[in-house]
Specification:
TIM Barrel, two-stranded antiparallel ribbon, globular
Length: 258
């Protein structure tokens, strides 16, 4: 048993930790944050990097930036993985997928979006005209969420960003299982190792992904086949499922010294 015995400026932790360690020992180091400080931290420490982007081009730029920063601190590109968030609207036909997305958009009041935007960015957006350019406003808070808008190809107003933010500042993949899978493959070619699915309709979004998209991804060899016998399903840890290894690699700064 190892005692923590941390004595810092803000708190003291004598240890030992009250919870038993997991088989992974160190939890998977999943980092979220797209500010410059967040990206620098990810490049040095993250095993997996979560991020928001409104377009594939925006993600590709982010992936290149993380790779440059990681290389600068001596990390290999295969020592971390990128998991951008996406919002899929998937249905058997393109028209049905469009109707599903329109249903979500029509249900959002701009005031709802303003509340969420203001909360996450630690800034009162209700004081601005809805037609005011978002790029003219500086705010603290979740910088990556704001960056998704300011780095996009179009110029967003406060009102437009509020409505979009209420249904997540992510790329929206709207279409049939085939077209959505095609786009996910293009994101993979741009550097994505996997995706975090955002769900504007719960549980509808997850059900649609399970029923429509997962079979298409499995048919393409992009997801493992479902076990024929659920009782034989893998008991691998999250790190083993993501990276095929049990512990942090020895090259990681968080790997315990021998």
């Amino acid at each position: 048993m190892s005692f923590v015995d941390h004595h810092g400026e803000s708190f003291d932790v004598p240890g030992p930790h009250m919870c038993a360690p997991t088989p992974q020992r160190t939890p998977v180091l999943f980092q979220a944050g797209s500010s410059d400080r967040g990206r620098e931290f990810a490049a040095r420490h993250a095993e997996a990097v979560f991020s928001f982007h409104l377009s594939r081009d925006g993600f590709a730029s982010h992936a290149e930036d993380i790779a440059d920063r990681a290389t600068a601190v001596g990390r290999r590109p295969d020592s971390y993985a990128l998991y951008p968030a996406v919002t899929p609207y998937v249905a058997p036909t393109a028209a049905a997928a469009e109707r599903l997305r329109d249903r979500v958009v029509d249900a959002i009041d701009p005031e709802t979006g303003l509340v969420r935007l203001s909360n996450h960015l630690n800034h009162d957006y209700d004081r601005y005209d809805l037609d005011a350019p978002l790029s003219d406003i500086d705010a603290d808070g979740i910088r990556g969420a704001l960056r998704a808008f300011t780095e996009d190809d179009r110029d967003w107003t406060v009102g437009e960003a509020a409505v979009r933010y209420a249904r997540y500042p992510t790329a929206e993949l709207v279409g049939t299982p085939e077209t959505v899978a095609d786009e996910l493959e293009r994101w993979g070619a741009a550097g994505a190792n996997g995706f975090v699915v955002m769900a504007p309709l719960v549980p509808r979004t997850f059900d649609d992904v399970r029923r429509h998209l997962v079979p298409e991804l499995r048919a393409r060899g992009l997801l493992p086949a479902a076990p024929s016998d659920p009782s034989t399903a893998t008991t691998d840890t999250l790190r083993e499922r993501l990276f095929g290894r049990e512990r942090l690699p020895e090259s990681h700064p968080g790997h315990p010294a021998e």
